Amino acid sequence: MNDALIYLDTYVLQQDMRVRMPKAILSNMGVEKGNTKFDIYLDSRDNSLVFRIHNDKNEGDKDNDK
Predict the structure, then answer these.
(1) What angle (nearest 5°) sits at the alpha carbon of residue 32, between those of residues 5 and 62?
(2) How far apart are CA 29 and CA 7, in angstroms?
(3) I need a labelling partner for 62 at 20 to 30 A (CA). Which of 39, 40, 43, 55 fits?
């Protein structure tokens, strides 16, 4: 596992496939509820998910789901 990872909390996958995000991301990542988008990646080597803040500037017209 990557040494740069910081454990925040453990959450249950909800029936409707939602996962609650820890409140600590609001102050530590500068995200806004209802506005910030995340790109989700699967790391199949260690069976983990990686959430990264979405950057519209690098994606071009790829993301037109508004």
Answers:
(1) 80
(2) 14
(3) 43
